[in-house]
Amino acid sequence: MEWLELLIEVDDYAEEIVSEYLWLLGSTGVSIKDRSDFENLPDDGFGTVKGEINESQYSQHPIVLGYFDANSAIDGIIYELESYINQYNQVNKEQPITLYRMQSEQIKSQDWENKWKEYYQPIQMTRYMSIIPVWESYTPESKANICIYLDPGMAFGTGSHPTTELMLIFLEVVMKTNDLVIDVGTGSGILAIAAYKLGAKKVWAYEYDHSVIETARENIRINTNSTDIDVIENDKLNGVNRQVNVISANILADILEPLIPQAYDNLVPDGALLLSGIYYDKVDEIKQALINHDFRIEQILQRGEWFAIYARKGRENRCKDTL
C-alpha cells in the first residue's frame, strides 16, 4: 500500500496543534520527529538507554509527519492547513505558528516502517519506567524498572513527549495497589499500561478516535495477557458512571476543561485527577476550572512550555511548587 507523507517543520510549541489539525484533515497517522526526544538520554542505574542522536536525521525544529491515502488531494490539504494556521495566527498574535518547511512524498508502507525504526529507541521516561519499541532487545539491570513495550504503528510518535513524561511521573506518585483507574484519550494505551503495571486492579481506557482503538488494544496485549484493561470507544466521560481512585487524561486543554466536572462525578472522595497536555497559556484557566469544581490542586509539574496538574477531589487547595 502507498501513502502520501506530508512533512511540516514547526516550533516545538506548535507540534500538537498541527498534529491535531492533520487528524481533522483526514490523516490516517501522525508522528512527531524531535531531536530533543533523544538528546541526553539518561542511564540511571537501570541499564544503558540507547538512542544516540544521528545529526543527519534531525532538523533544527520538530518535524510533524502526516500520512494520507495515496489518492488524497495533497495540494488541497496543504491549502487547508495554511488557511487554518493563518486564522490561528490572527487570534494568537503573541505566539504565531511558523511553517518553516512543508513538503510531500509518496512512500510505501514498508518504507515508512523502516524510517520509523531509525529513530524510535528505548527511552528512560522516569525513575522507574522505560518505553521500549517491541522490535528492540532490552534487559534492565534492575527488576524495579518497569518496561512498557509499544508498537506505535502509524498512529503515534515515540511516547517521549513531555506531556507523557509528566503523566508517568504523577502516576508513580499517586498509584496504590488495587486502585481503580480511568484513562481518558488513551491513544497508544501507554498510560493505561503504566497504571496497570504500577498496581491497578482495573483500568478503563477511553478513546474517542475509532482508528486508534486497535493500536491501544495491541499494545496492551503486548504488555500483559490480563483482561483487566478495557479499551472503550467513547467521547471523554460522556455516559460513564464509575467510582475510581485515579483518572488520567493527557489531551488538549480545550478538552480537559469540560472533562473536569465529569471526572469529579467518577472519582471517589479524595480521588486523584491527573491532567496533562496543558500549554503554558492555558494553565491558569485549567487551575480555575479545577477550583470551581471543588478540586484541590496538589502539584504542578512543568517541562518546557508544557504543564501537568495533579489534583484531588475535595476542597482545601494546597498547591505545591512547580518542579
UniProtKB/TrEMBL annotation:
Keywords: Cytoplasm, Methyltransferase, Ribonucleoprotein, Ribosomal protein, S-adenosyl-L-methionine, Transferase. The keyword Thylakoid does not apply. Its EC number is 2.1.1.-. One of its GO terms (biological process) is methylation. Methylates ribosomal protein L11. Belongs to the methyltransferase superfamily. PrmA family. This is Ribosomal protein L11 methyltransferase. It comes from Aerococcus suis. The gene is prmA.
